[in-house]
């Protein structure tokens, strides 16, 4: 399965009032693993940048003045994205801008290129209701470092989102196992009856126990003090 994780930066918040895309970044993932293929462009919007947007991404009209306009990169974008599942954080925002750019070029909507669109913001709100679900908040929740992210950037954010997406969809957030009460009611003597299980219990043999004790002894020796498990056993 091929997926494209995508992010954009814009001149403002509303394409309906003339705001435009000024940066687009994509990373490719195949079989839930990042490939070395990326797509990244700064884009000349041919208009001013709102002060609020500039505070977020730091991209000025002067910096963007010699960059290509959207029409000059659209074919490369189509080639990179076409047929993939697209993963976006707050997809309604980015797709609104991308569809607008395509409409200005009299092309079918951008979203038609995708085999599927996955919105990680909507998914995060279902997974963590009532909690902050910004990209920064999700990075913190899944212990993904974003210290190098002082300003928003489309390619950097797409790379972080790829890590977040994998963490959100791996099916298990940590190595802990829920404790399940396998007893159901009681039998005629008043004792709990356990649910039948097909779990096979494997006991350690003598060699396993000796090897385990040897490793514990080596750890205790290298630590040069009583191990925690020894003090816990004696208490």
Description:
With 235 residues, this protein is an alpha/beta fold. It contains 9 helices and 7 strands. The chain has helices at 51-57, 61-64, 74-81, 91-104, 120-127, 135-141, 154-169, 206-223, 228-234, and strands at 2-10, 21-30, 33-42, 85-88, 116-119, 183-186, 192-194. The protein has a 5-stranded mixed beta sheet.
Would you spell out the secondary-structure blueprint of this structure?
Elements: E1 2-10, E2 21-30, E3 33-42, H1 51-57, H2 61-64, H3 74-81, E4 85-88, H4 91-104, E5 116-119, H5 120-127, H6 135-141, H7 154-169, E6 183-186, E7 192-194, H8 206-223, H9 228-234
Gyration radius from CA atoms, angstroms: 27 Å
The helix-strand sequence is: EEEHHHEHEHHHEEHH
Shape: elongated
Mean pLDDT: 85
Gap from first CA to last CA: 55 Å
Secondary-structure class: alpha/beta
SS strand fraction? 15-25%
Contiguous runs where pLDDT drops below 50 for at least 5 residues: 172-186, 192-197
Query: What share of residues is helical?
Result: 25-40%
Discrete helix count: 9
Could you provide a short overview of the structure?
Helix content is 38%, strand content 19%.
List keywords for this structure.
alpha/beta; five-stranded mixed beta sheet; 7 strands; 38% helix; 235 residues; 9 helices
């Amino acid at each position: 399965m091929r997926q494209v994780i995508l992010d954009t930066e814009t001149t403002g918040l509303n394409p309906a009032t003339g705001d435009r895309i000024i940066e687009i970044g994509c990373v490719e993932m195949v079989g839930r693993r990042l490939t070395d293929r990326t797509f990244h462009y700064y884009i000349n919007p041919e208009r001013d940048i709102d002060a609020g947007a500039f505070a977020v991404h730091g991209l000025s009209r002067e910096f963007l003045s010699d960059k290509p306009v959207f029409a000059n990169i659209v074919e490369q974008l189509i080639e990179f994205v076409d047929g993939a599942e697209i993963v976006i954080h707050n997809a309604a925002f980015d797709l609104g801008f991308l569809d607008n750019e395509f409409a200005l070029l009299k092309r079918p909507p951008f979203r038609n290129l995708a085999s599927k669109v996955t919105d990680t913001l909507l998914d995060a709100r279902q997974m963590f209701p009532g909690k902050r679900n910004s990209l920064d908040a999700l990075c913190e929740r899944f212990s993904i470092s974003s210290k190098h992210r002082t300003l928003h950037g489309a390619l950097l954010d797409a790379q972080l989102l790829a890590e977040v997406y994998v963490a959100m969809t791996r099916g298990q957030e940590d190595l802990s196992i829920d404790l399940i009460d396998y007893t159901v009611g009681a039998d005629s003597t008043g004792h709990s009856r356990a649910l039948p299980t097909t779990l096979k219990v494997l006991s350690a043999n003598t060699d396993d126990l000796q090897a385990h004790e040897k490793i514990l002894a080596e750890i205790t020796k290298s630590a040069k003090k009583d191990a925690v498990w020894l003090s816990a056993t004696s208490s």
